Amino acid sequence: MVRIETCYFCSGPCYPGHGVQxxxxxSKVFKFCRSKCHKNFVKKRNPRKTAWTxxxxxxxxxxxxxxSTFDFEKRRNRPxxxxxxxxxxxLRAMQRVKEIQTRREEIYYKRRMKGAKxxxxxxxxxxxxxxxxxxxxxxxxxxxxxxxxAEKAKAxxxxxxxxxxxxxxxxxxxxxxxxxxxx
Length: 183
Prior knowledge:
The protein is mainly α. The chain is about 60% helix and about 5% strand. It has helices at about 35-40, 55-60, 85-115, 115-130, 130-180, and strands at about 5, 15, 20-25, 30. It has a two-stranded antiparallel sheet with strand order 1-2. Strands 3-4 form a two-stranded antiparallel ribbon. The model has no long low-confidence stretch (mean pLDDT about 85).
C-alpha cells in the first residue's frame, strides 16, 4: 500500500517515489525525504542541533510537543477490510484533525510571540539610547533638509501665484484690447 512516510532526519513528509531509503546492516530502515537529509545523517549530525529540522524546533519550544492530535498520526499496521463509508468518514476525520491542529498551532505561536514585540521595542530603545551620538548629526542634517524642502515649496507656490497673476493680467489685457477694437 502506498503511504506517506516521515523523514528520519527532518520529520517532514516523504512521498512515494521520492527521497532515499537507507538500510543499515541490522536491517533498520531509514527513510529520508531528500538527499540533504541523507547527507546530514551520513555525516552523523544530530537533528536536534540542526536548525531547520522539526526536532530542533520542538527542542527549542518553537513548535507544539504535546497535543492530542498527534495520536492520530501514529502508524497503524492492522489490515482493515475496505469499506467505502469507513474510508469517507476517515478522510473527513483526517481533514477535521488537520484543521484543529493548524488552529492550535496558530494559538501556540500567538502565545509564544505575545511578549516578543514589546521586548524587541525595549531592546531597540536601549540600543538607541546607547548610540544616540551617531544619530545626532543625522538629525541635524534632517532638519536642514526639511528646511530646504519647505523653502523650495514656498518658492514654487510663489512662482505659481506670480504666473497665475501674470496670466490673469494678460487675459484681462487681451479682453480689454478686444473690446476696444470692436467699438
